[in-house]
Design a protein that fits this description.
Radius of gyration of chain B: 26 Å
Helix content of chain B: 25-40%
Largest sheet of chain A: none
Number of helices of chain A: 5
Number of strands of chain B: 12
Largest sheet of chain B: 6 strands, antiparallel
Distance between the termini of chain A: 13 Å
Distance between the termini of chain B: 82 Å
CATH topology of one domain in chain B: Thrombin, subunit H
Number of strands of chain A: 0
Structural class of chain A: mainly alpha
Radius of gyration of chain A: 14 Å
Order of helices and strands of chain B: HHHHEEEEEEEEEEEE
Helix content of chain A: 55-70%
CATH architecture of one domain in chain B: Beta Barrel
CATH class of one domain in chain B: Mainly Beta
Order of helices and strands of chain A: HHHHH
Strand order of the largest sheet of chain B: 1-12-3-4-5-2
Oligomer: heterodimer
Structural class of chain B: alpha+beta
Number of helices of chain B: 4
């Protein structure tokens, strides 16, 4: 089992901070939590937080006709989870190394 | 000497991992598409649930913060000790009553200004339910919805009559307001008869350019022709390079957004 699949206190704390900051904190706090989570873990919860952020704050329903209606947070969260996978795989290959 | 752990190739595992990640990516995209698709088809049903949940959370947090603040739990240790001593005497009780009276007086003043504004129109006064700085889209929530006569397109004003934004999403008791100065949003504006297009910068700020020879000054009110020439802000700063034909205007709302507790909503 790779270490970055595992749940840990750090992951739970970061995920809770990420979800709370979606509603209460400036957007960049949620983005920072998401980045930290995705650097260390394959954090699927980041995508859920991204969807929540878009559902909560977007002024219009999703459409690619205008910039206001593009679900940016969801797109960024998916990019973080999948885009950082090669980096995670290179740096966090197993419990023997960490 | 400690024996070295045997080298284990990860190539095979990596290949299967890549396949599973590709499959996961497709599943994620499909699920996300499904969520937003249902929301669009249902006219914002999913967003409504998310906002109701978030607004309830905000209201609970706000109430808890008020209780903690009123109780003085966030004061420094010395202040708490002092307060404890004072609370034992009659003077402290009077101080507390005076503070409470001051808070109520401030709130009453704000509501009175809102009532004055309401007397000039058919709108409603609504509490602000969310932070102005949390949204990446320059939106915020207010505690008025369709049952209060608010509809999409309603204009939201400060107590002084400055335009804050326009209602874009609506449910029964909550509305989403898109700030007039949302990041990247372009607004046609007018200052002292000079028309120009301003670009929102978020946080109640915008930036625009007008001809260099236009006679404008810091503090001039900036109007929005699309909303019956209501004011949307004031000029906070002017910048003009000697080589440029334009003057850059930095526009700001003359209110502290963080302390704004009530807004006024004008129906369409």
């Amino acid at each position: 089992m790779f270490t970055y699949y595992r749940f840990s206190k750090l992951r739970i704390v970061l995920a809770a901070a990420c979800f709370l900051s979606v509603v209460f904190a400036p957007w960049w706090v949620a983005a920072l939590c998401a980045l930290l989570l995705c650097l260390r873990f394959r954090a699927w919860e980041v995508i859920i937080a991204g969807i929540l952020m878009d559902l909560y704050w977007m002024p219009f329903s999703v459409s690619f006709a205008s910039f206001d209606s593009i679900p940016l947070a969801t797109i960024v969260s998916i990019a973080l989870v999948f885009g950082l996978e090669p980096l995670r795989r290179q740096l966090l290959v197993g419990p023997e190394i960490i | 000497m400690t024996p070295q752990p045997p080298y284990r190739s990860l190539r095979r595992k990596d290949t299967s991992n890549e396949k599973s990640m590709s499959a996961a990516f497709i599943v994620v995209v499909l699920v996300v598409g499904l969520v937003f698709g249902i929301d669009k088809v249902s006219g914002g049903l999913v967003r409504g649930y998310a906002r109701r949940g978030g607004a309830s959370l905000s209201a609970a947090a706000s109430a808890a913060t008020s209780v903690i603040t009123e109780n003085g739990l966030l004061s420094s240790k010395r202040a708490l000790q002092k307060e404890n001593i004072e609370l034992k005497g009659a003077i402290a009780i009077r101080d507390e009553n005076a503070a409470r009276f001051k808070a109520l007086e401030d709130e009453n003043e704000k509501l009175r200004k809102m009532a004055d504004l309401a007397a000039t129109g058919d709108g409603v006064t609504a509490p602000v339910l969310s932070s102005f700085r949390a949204s990446p889209y320059g939106t915020f929530m207010i505690g008025a919805g369709s049952v209060h006569g608010v509809s999409a397109g309603s204009v939201v004003l400060t107590e002084g009559g400055f335009i804050l934004g326009v209602v874009t999403g609506i449910s029964a008791r909550i509305a989403t307001v898109e700030s007039l100065f949302a990041p990247g949003k372009e607004i046609e504006m007018n200052v002292d008869g000079n028309a120009f297009v301003a670009e929102g910068r978020g946080g109640g700020n915008a930036r625009g350019e007008i001809a260099r020879d236009a006679s404008v000054a810091v503090g001039d009110a900036v109007l929005v022709p699309a909303f019956a020439s209501r004011p949307a802000g004031v000029i906070g700063e002017l910048q003009s390079a000697s080589s440029s034909a334009y003057t850059t205007l930095y526009i700001r709302l003359p209110v502290n957004l963080d302390s704004l507790r009530y807004v006024y909503v004008l129906p369409l």
